[in-house]
Amino acid sequence: MLSTRHLSRAALTLAATVCLTGLPAVAGTAGAAAEPLAWKRCATTAEDWPVANDPGTECAMLTVPMDHANPQGRTIKIAVSRLKATDPGRRRGVLVISPGGPGISNITAPASYAANGLGTLAADHDLIGFDPRGVGYSDKIDCTEGTPAELPPGASAKARAKAAFDQMAASNKRCTALDPAFARQLTTTNIARDVDAIRAALGEQKISFYGVSYGTAVGLTYRSTFDARVERMWVDSVMPPVLDLAAMDAVSDAVGEKSFERFLTWVAGRDDEYHFGTTAAAARTTIFALRDRLDRKPLAAGKKTVLDGDWVRSQLGVDAGGWAASARDLATVREGGIPQSARPGPDPAQVFGFDDAPLGMNTTQYNAIFCNEGTGGRDFGRVWADAQDRRQRFPGTGGKIEFSSWCAGWPWPARPWQPVKGNSPLQLSGHAGESVTPYAWAVDAGKAAGGTLLTIQDGVHGSLARLPCAAKAIDFFRTGRTSGGACPGMQ
């Protein structure tokens, strides 16, 4: 799932590994010939396997080129999982599931999706999951971010933003220096080629693919490169076709501003509970006063967490399902308290292999995905100017430095990817009121890649698999029928 630190940065050792034996000229990826994967039960193979009541997920390691353009060079390991079709007689093939990120593990997807609204597909498809390079049980860089330099209490919002930018630049420099060759190859393009290596190792001529959030970027990049190897593809809560980090922040702010206007009416109707004012105008005045006060004098919530004006802005752009939590947290901070959601937790560990637990987010992979192929975010002056422009255009939620903050000091220029149209069946679904991956991104992705767009009438990120509308996805993967129009969402 994508978030502002997930995309919200909101999770090995086997007896044998598989080595690919050469790549064809077509797009520099794995060919059809590959040794079979050495499957073992994940629950007994992977340390701290997080799936309770696992229906029988199997795990294996796949060896792939670190740089697919240099197949004879260094190799890395990718962790793969599988739930075999429960009705082998009706088996249609494999469905690769990529439910989100960057920075988080995806290997439990088969077990998770077998238990949700798409679970019917587990009868006639092998469900395939994997940890993308750089996260989870797959090979990665183990490096944690530092903390911004302490500033005097009266430091300006710009000074605090510059300190955070400089800290990110130092972290990026330190973490990429641990293994620069590997960090440079942490790209969506390479992950898509890893997917094709998985296809080859499974012995399949074609795969079906279901992607959510960042997983949609993996899917659309795969289809753009290997269209003839796609049986059917559905992408839900779609990433934009181009990673322009400043533009992504602007779209996110615009969507958030619309939600904020509705939130004002909602919270004014609950003044007896939250005490922001009995009209939308009064609530706006109270909330903006809190925002301005925290911009002048932020509230420390731990060594690494500061509640400032940007924290207020982040509370105002959420969808309706998060309004109650935002109102409660804003009221707590207004009274000088620290909300539970902002209290710091322990730093997660980052580890290697099936013999260790892949806890937490890998921030190095997260940043690399956006910075190796995304434009912008390198120059603080430009980042700050863009933020001030958005603050003027969107007074409630504008000006947050989110996507455009991760690439400070990134040592390499971007090599952008962009989906292209193909012939394989493609279905997109976008959520009309969503702020994490705004609906406009799904529209833009459809223009770039083709396919049919289904509009889901909610603002809930990646909710398709939990809706009655999931029946359309099940039908699509079995018949290839696409669906336009709209579908009811979560209320």
TrEMBL record:
Q: Does the keyword Electron transport apply?
A: no
Instruction: Specify the superkingdom.
Output: Bacteria
Q: Does the keyword Acetylation apply?
A: no
Q: Which residues form the AB hydrolase-1 domain?
A: 94-298
One of its Pfam families is Abhydrolase_1
Q: What are the UniProt keywords, alphabetically?
A: Hydrolase, Signal
Query: What does the record give under GO molecular function?
Result: hydrolase activity
Every Peptidase S33 tripeptidyl aminopeptidase-like C-terminal domain range: 405-482
The signal peptide, as residue positions, is 1-27
Similarity comment: Belongs to the peptidase S33 family.
Protein name according to UniProt: Alpha/beta fold hydrolase
